[in-house]
Amino acid sequence: MNCTREIAPHIVFVGAGDRRLALFENLFPLDNGVTYNSYLILDEKTALIDTVDASVQGQFLENVAAALGGRKLDYLVVNHMEPDHCAAIGEICLRHPEAKIVGNKKTFAMIGQFFPDDLSARFHEVGEGGTLALGKRRLHFVLAPMVHWPEAMFALLPEEGILFSADAFGTFGGSNGTLFSDEMDFEALYLDEARRYYTNIVGKYGKQVSVVLAKLEGAAPSLICPLHGPILRGSAIPFMVDKYRHWAGYEPEKKGVVIAYASMYGNTAGAAQIMADMLAKRGVADLRVFDASKTYCSYIIAEIFKYSRLVLAAPTYNMHLHASMEALLRDMAALNVQNRKAVVIGNGSWAPAAPKLMKAMLEEMKDMEVLGEPLTLLSSLKEAQLPEMEALADRLAL
Ligand code: FEO
């Protein structure tokens, strides 16, 4: 059975979703699956915008066949070559030997890397500002390097105000049947997952995202069709563009404090909780406390992007850091987290290396200010250290 939906006159959603996948990229937990979106334009020429992940290829092929209704496929537009979108290129090419593959130089290099057959005779190259005439419509291409891979590009139908935005504006989360953001409570259902998707998948490339956002100034799309999650329409468009400006610029969305700790026997956790209580008593309402050994990094990273301040607390381990905190800090550095104020609490029973190590790792990040000196615990927090902690809480609560 096909499962398609016309999203605009003669433009059909032909994607599919997967709720069985536990880890996206075998790394990021999926609480409720993910969708792989694909769109078919039926004009004088037909054009398929991207394919899908191998896991949903069967459904996708049924959808494409139903939407084509016996017509031939003229173009396969490849906006992104990551396998969650390109896996079905081989099968589409087999079923539609007449279809040209539309991409840029980098797209074609990757097709050669991923697929054994030589498809080069079918390549139709476009570049920045390139267009593809389909009949009444003409697709305009905008290169979007590093959003999320170097070959990524967007396709725009200016007259209809439709932007096919590849990974940008996508989100984790399966479909609830509704497809457009204004058919659902988009913010409640998808904002947290859109943030977790962006910050972990594209977070490193804020500069490049800002460049592409600037290129789209003036485009004023009325529909944004990403490769994952709902299609944005109405108020969700300015709402999400504003979120992207914050995330790409590493600007916090809100004042608030994320407290992330690693703890072996509860002493460091106890200190982190006392800090949370002190902040709450100072009126900090937006507080998020995470055990970095239990909560997957991607959730903590998303909250760190959201809020203005953070507290990191961890014990020393083998004269280095507890591995859970080390992983979080390395991920923060890899994703270019910057422009935050932080407090460090480090523990150690005989040679407490953690405070210095955490401070050093944070200070290597751009515009990351460590407030005061790290609080050093010798096995556990002592009554006599409370004033020092209160002083740090005062600075965080500003
Ligand atoms: Fe959804 Fe970068 O792939």
Number of helices: 12
State the end-to-end distance.
Answer: 58 Å
| Low-pLDDT segments | none
Mean pLDDT: 98
Strand order in the largest sheet: 1-2-7-8-9-10-11
% residues in beta strands: 15-25%
Q: Name the overall outline.
A: elongated
Bound molecules: MU-OXO-diiron
Whole-angstrom Rg: 24 Å
The secondary structure category is alpha/beta
Characterize the largest beta sheet: strand count, sense, and whether it forms a barrel.
Answer: 7 strands, mixed
What's the total count of β strands? 24
> Helical proportion?
25-40%
Q: Layout of SSEs?
A:
Layout: E1 5-8, E2 11-13, E3 16-18, E4 23-24, E5 28-29, E6 34-36, E7 39-42, E8 46-49, H1 57-68, E9 75-77, H2 83-86, H3 89-95, E10 100-103, H4 105-114, E11 123-125, E12 131-133, E13 138-143, E14 153-157, E15 162-164, H5 186-202, H6 206-216, E16 223-225, E17 232-233, H7 236-248, E18 254-261, H8 267-281, E19 287-291, H9 297-306, E20 307-317, E21 320-321, H10 323-334, E22 340-348, H11 354-363, E23 368-370, E24 375-378, H12 386-396
Parallel strand pairs: 8-9, 9-10, 10-11, 15-16, 18-19, 18-20, 20-22, 22-23, 22-24
Antiparallel strand pairs: 1-2, 2-7, 3-6, 4-5, 7-8, 12-13, 13-14, 14-15, 16-17, 20-21
Helix pairs in contact: 5-7, 5-9, 6-7
Provide a descriptive summary of the structure in words.
This protein has 398 residues and is α/β, with parallel strands linked by helices. Helix content is 33%, strand content 25%. Strands 1-2-7-8-9-10-11 form a 7-stranded mixed β-sheet. Strands 18, 19, 20, 21, 22, 23 and 24 form a 7-stranded mixed β-sheet that branches. It has a 6-stranded mixed β-sheet with strand order 12-13-14-15-16-17. α5 packs parallel to α7 (236-248) and α6 runs antiparallel to α7.
